[in-house]
Amino acid sequence: MSDVDEVITRAHHDEWARVVAALTRRFSDLDIAEEAAAEAFATAVERWPVVGVPANPGAWLTTTANRKAIDRIRRENKRDDKHKEAQMVHDDDPPEPLGAIDDDRLRLIFTCCHPALAMEARLALTLRMVGGLTVPEIARAFLATESAMGQRITRAKSKIKAARIPYRMPSAEDLPARVTGVLAVVFLVFNEGYLATGPGTDPVRHDLTTEAIRLTRLIRVLLPRDGEVAGLLALMLLTEARRAARVSGSGELVALDEQDRGAWDAGLIAEGHRLVRERLAAAAAGVAPGRYQILAAINAVHTSARDSRDTDWSQVLALYDRLVRLDPSPIVALNRAIAVAELDGPEVALAIVDRLAEALAGYHAYHVTRADLLRRLGRGQESRAAYDKAIDLAGNTAETAYLTRRRDQLR
Fold this sequence. Notes:
Structural class: mainly alpha
Oligomer: single chain
Distance between the termini: 38 Å
Shape: globular
Number of strands: 0
Strand content: under 5%
Mean pLDDT: 88
């Protein structure tokens, strides 16, 4: 990859959401914003290797995308109001007030997460429009097919247009009611960066995890008393702290119990632990913790242990027991079974996992967990078959390398 190609790739990571958000705010049309942004990046691919990279790539892309959008509007003759068209053409018009939210990307997230849309549509649309994820990446995040996910995103945009959902940010009073869907979206963006699934991408996409953390910090500024915002931020920080130790020099995923804990980011861990302690104090005062706060507490237990053998698994299991009452999903039950294996043994855990077979047949982590439990029980042939299934379903290159090695060790 040439230097210019690397700059373009980085610009796409850094500027996609900014460009789409700016165009959405200006033209109030997601299709126009997305297509004009894509055309601007395509133009950059053609021109930058020839004329050089502009001094401010983000400004160049935004200006080019604005021109592409105006050209499209004129071609399709979708604006009869000449006054509105004049406002679009003149870039020196004063911007409208931003209201409670002063970040266009965060504004776009809340817009895409409008309650009129089904939750899955909100998540998929925001991952595409703000996170810049491809349809295959989003499909993996939802455990769905690519065609189904593409149709879901198209229907979501069509519904916004047909229902004339306004591109306005919720008022300060309405923000708490809207934040649940937003946090789910940001968490999915973080997860895609934490364990990237796109072919040809880095196994850990620091750009996505960094953006998810940045957006969560902004949401916390807006909602400083919301415990789930603080919990999600703590969860992300404690997970991101382990990033440098998660992939080996040979490009293989390193399991938590094998990671070099000296390579963990002490600053992020300290900040995450501080947030968890704040939420524990609130819980002691009678404020029930939510899902993200409990997940953050589980990660705090793991990151408090100097060695994996020092992990307080009884505390981890107790936290999962509490989480199951809030979120009785098969994935939570699967993660709880891992703690059960450490306390009661792999046979007890395997019985729990096998009951989840129908619900999680297409989920690679189910087969990973099952393969490991079978390996520990000495059932090598069954373990190998489970590893094969996990490898088929895993989309992360580093994880595939790790699973392949574990499977081959069974020989």
